[in-house]
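Model the whole thing, not chain by chain.
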Amino acid sequence: MTATAPDGARSFRWRRRSVLPGFGLSLGYTIVYLSLIVLIPLAGLGIRSASLGWDQFWAIAFDRRVLLALQLSFGSALIAAIINTVFGVLVAWVLVRYRFPGRRWLDAAVDLPFALPTAVAGIALATLYAPNGPFGALLDDWFGLRVGFTSFGVVMALIFVGLPFVVRTVQPVLEEIDRETEEVAATLGARRWRTVTRVIFPALLPAILTGFALSFARGVGEYGSVIFIASNLPFQSEIAPLLIVIKLEENNYAGATAIATIMLVIAFVMLFVINLLQAWSRKWFGHE
Amino acid sequence: MSEAAATRQQRKVRQAIGEGPATRFVLLTIALAFLGLMLVAPLLVVFVEAFGRGLGVYFQALALPDTMAALQLTLLVAAIAVPANLVFGVAAAWLIAKFDFKGKSFLLTLIDLPFAVSPVVSGLIFVLLFGANSALGPWLEDNNIKILYAVPGIVIATIFITFPFIARELIPLMEQQGSSEEEAAVSLGASGWRTFFQVTLPNVKWGLLYGVLLCNARAMGEFGAVSVVSGHIRGVTNTLPLHIEILYNDNKAAAAFAVASLLAMLALVTLAVKTLLEARFAGEIAAQRRH
């Protein structure tokens, strides 16, 4: 499988020759479908946003209600992503390294937030954490903590939707890690904790960061599960996606467009960072 | 070294590369407790609330005309969105896995875009595109074409949301399998389509099935994007997830959970099929599991 052509001529070729047919058809179909469904509609948002002009854009973006909504969305997504990173790594570790009955079903359960519709998760969490719900009442009794219908509730919902990302990015890397390096560290006299922090953790770091970024990005945009468990009060527990919906219901297209643009730009930056992390991981650790 | 000393040495190394039983127990307990509280409890609540007031109430809630209409619409939307993304997923996977060309990783990033966009923003872009004060809006109105607040809008928003699912499942799988078998088939004179249906498809069928299932679960369960483009017209543009919201906000929690249990069962079936496929065809399902 040599990639270089034997011919000395360095003619520019933008694709390597292949005997397989269908390059033109699949390229054409992919580009057209991608443009119609994704690129043109997204560009439409960009054009609408550009037509607002800077003054109007900034006036909307720095409105106190908008700032507080963005702060709540990003802040809760950050807290949820940190919690998911800690527990996600732990769950991945237990699933990969330990053998116990029901492990396969537990492994399957991790994907539940991918498969369960957000509205279903939303009403289930709202019932659990409502002040008179099974968990809500206990937390209130024991710690005086109100989760349902507060910003804690937002974090709870975001933990639920973001949980699989960390587990599913760390797990395959952990499965591939060569046990021999650990044995070497152990034979050289390293204690277990030192082996874990100095040998295993550095190899997992890119995957952990990717999982964190994916979980965070998902949390920032989440809508369905949050609106049921948050009280959705302006200035208090109103997430940014909900504010977009409210602006749309008020026929305030400029407001909705501006908030959506801010969220989209940040989401694309996140996507870019995730891609960089994965390129870095491929380069240094040889895996995604 | 005597045999006993050798075994002792081995045991020492094994302890040093694993955790002690106490640590194992603590880690396992924390992981199980976390998953139990965060994942299993919400799932149980759905079924407890749905069936808690008896089967009579349950089936009564499901038999409401609005529920039946929502179920029909959800099935219709998935029946259009999933095949559309299936064709795209296969075309994109063939392109990316079988050919080398410049700009491939950029194309992959573009395919991933819908994952990065908030569901509400996904809905909004179609409101801006087809809405009354868009460039297309007046033309659509003159020609009496209803996209927004009607079924076509819901279908398009769902296609956008589930756009990458099947492609993302197929691409790593087909890349991993290489193209030598297809090259052999073509060299022996098989046509491109025959090569695809008789060589490629049998190799990727389980991964493809899983991609279709995930895409379907998301298509039937999408809430945010569909909520923005649907207009919430009862019995007309309400999908099952939107119907759940309406019932829940009307203080009909039991009915809301009855409808929710349908979607929860769909999720469970999806996960069960995935687990069974992984157990039987471990090598044929993509290692990449980002969604």
